[in-house]
Amino acid sequence: MSLVLDPAAQDLLFREARTANTFTDEPVTEEQIQAIYDLVKFGPTAFNQTPLRVVLVRSPEARGRLVQHMSDGNKPKTSTAPLVAIFAADNEFHEELPELFPAFPAAKDAFFSERPVREQNAGMNAALQAAYFIVGIRAAGLAAGPMTGFDHAGVQKEFLDGDHVPLMVVNIGKPGNNAWHARSPRRSYDEVVTTV
Questions:
Q1: Helix, coil or strand: residue 164
Q2: 57 - beta bridge partners?
Q3: Taking a C-beta distance cutoff of 8 angstroms, is the pair 63, 32 a contact?
Q4: Which among 10, 18, 121, 187 counts the fewest CB atoms within 10 Å?
């Protein structure tokens, strides 16, 4: 059975897509990010909790503050990417549940009154939203360079608060020269999928 999605779109979003390591200096506009968000906001999360929060790092001053928290290998590309985003999980997402999940407004207190439960759910569902966002970046004809190599506590203190936990930093832009490493191997279907 073939996929419904056009093969060119499949290539753009998955088969030909890579983590970009260099970028051109072409700016990434607020309108582009808004269009990406307006597409990916429809991706599902548990109880529609949508805990992802995004900090766009645009100013040179903020960029300098972020770069100091990146691992050495990630500093050069974070310094030069047209746009950098911090993807974080909001551990107080439950406060919005009565509005976001009107089918069961009591979910806020019935399931998420305890902080450890919220932290686990926020981390998992924000990571899911981050993946949607990366695919959305690709759908906009841009490249993403997601990174987890940074001082998480430092980024949290510098840009967030105690209720927001950084998950990844993502460089965004048009891919530059030698942007890609060679495609790494993937596991086969039979190695990953089991039928019981």
A1: strand
A2: 84
A3: no
A4: 187
Q: In a 3-state reduction of DSSP, which class is residue 84?
A: strand
Separation CA 15–CA 12 (nearest Å): 7
Residue-wise pLDDT for 43-56, tens only, equals 999 999 999 999 99
Helix, strand, coil abundance in the chain, percent, nearest 5:
45, 15, 35
Distance CA 55, CA 161 (A): 12
pTM: 0.95
Helices 152-159, 60-67: inter-axial angle, 10-degree rounding: 150
Joined together, the tokens standing for residue 14 give 């998955």
Place of tokens 């406060």: 95
Cα separation, 74 vs 72, whole angstroms: 5
Provide the b/e sequence for 105-143 (b: ≥16 CB within 10 Å).
eebbeebbeeeeebeebbeebbebbbebbbbbbbebebb
Which token pair is 156? Answer: 């949290």
**What stretches of the chain show up as alpha helix (H) in DSSP?**
7-10, 30-40, 60-67, 75-80, 97-100, 107-112, 115-139, 152-159, 189-192
Asked if residues 148 and 168 have their Cβ atoms less than 8 Å apart, the reply is: yes
For 77-93, what is each residue's pLDDT tens digit? 999 999 999 999 999 99
Q: What is the pLDDT of residue 2?
A: 87
Low-confidence ranges of the chain (pLDDT < 50): none
Backbone torsions φ then ψ of 77, nearest 5 degrees = -70, -30
